[in-house]
Amino acid sequence: MNTATRALFNDWAEVYDIQPNPLLLLEQRTLPPMMPPIEGLDVLDVGCGTGRWLKQMELLAPSSLTGTDASDAMLKKARATLAPTTALHLSDSTTLPVADASTDLILASFVLSYLADLDAFAGECVRILRVGGHLLLSDMHPTTAAQRHWIRCFYLEGKRIELPANPLTMTEIIAAFSRRGFQLLTLNEPAFAEPERHVFEQTNKLAEYDALRSVPAIYLMKFLKAAEGNESVTELANRTEGRADTSGKPASEVTPSFVDRRLRR
Fold first, then answer.
1. What are phi and psi of 255, to 5 degrees?
2. Which of 96, 175, 186 is nearest to 137 (CA)?
3. Methyltransferase type domain: from which residue to which, for each copy (predicted)?
4. Contact (Cβ atoms closer than 8 angstroms) between residue 11 and residue 161
5. CA atoms of 232 and 131, how far apart (whole Å)
């Protein structure tokens, strides 16, 4: 992340936790069922921001919990609310300060669209994760974002501030991690529903809410780091999570999508 973009994220930290975002609410509702049991795991949250997921995972008794972010202002906000045992590091996502094969679960929530080098991040994930570990990715749905011309932005002191983002299709993302040996277990593409309605109502955008109820707003991907050799994905999933999660679409069903064009209005 360059200096100018980092400065924008530092500004965003001031209002990140107080400005309602229906995309984050939708993720908060739909991601937990895809998570493996957290108890006893070594967990890394890449791009942890102000620590919204770290706060929740602290309650689930992980063996260790680490967050990284490229914004020192975001990390300062996180540090003020997290337990002392949760480690925080100022770090770019392509050079993570984590030891080889030290992690059971990596979460990257609304991160990939800000990456300058997706392949480098995928390489870091395969380096850090143990065999049988999981990678959870989420972001704005690129097809809907392009069709609706969504822009990633926030508001500060009455000004609308746009955030630069790199366009990535889901096919590109899946291919990048598949090349590194990851297996896609689940792909979920949820739409807004009644739990998110109040955010649109607060901003006088109920018409937009009605139009979006039938289209995916975000994507959620769950990958497994498979072993080299003959152990199958199902065997690994059964061993590490208790059961294989096959509720989503396999990678072969994913079709190319429109270019991701940015976040909230």
1. -110, 155
2. 186
3. 44-136
4. yes
5. 12
Task: Give the C-alpha distances (Å, rounded to integers) separating 243 from 97, 115, 234, 238, 246.
Answer: 31, 32, 8, 4, 9
Give the pair of three-digit tokens for residue 67: 């967050």
Strands 153-156 and 159-162: antiparallel
261 in a structural domain? no
Q: How many CA atoms lie within 13 A of 96 on its CB side?
A: 31
Which CATH number covers residue 109? 3.40.50.150
For residue range 119-172, what is the model confidence (pLDDT) as tens digits?
999 999 999 999 999 999 999 999 999 999 998 989 998 899 999 988 899 999
Distance CA 113, CA 170 (A): 11
Assign 5 a pLDDT band (cuts: 50, 70, 90). Answer: confident
Do the Cβ atoms of 37 and 241 come closer than 8 Å?
yes
Domain span at 197: 3-253
Q: How far apart are CA 194 and CA 173, in angstroms?
A: 29
Q: How far is CA 230 from the centre of its chain?
A: 30
Q: Give the closest residue to 31 by CA, choosing from 157, 136, 164.
A: 136
User: How far is 255 from 120, CA to CA, in rounded Å?
Assistant: 23
Asked whether residue 132 is assigned to any structural domain, the reply reads yes
CB 172 within 8 A of CB 264: no
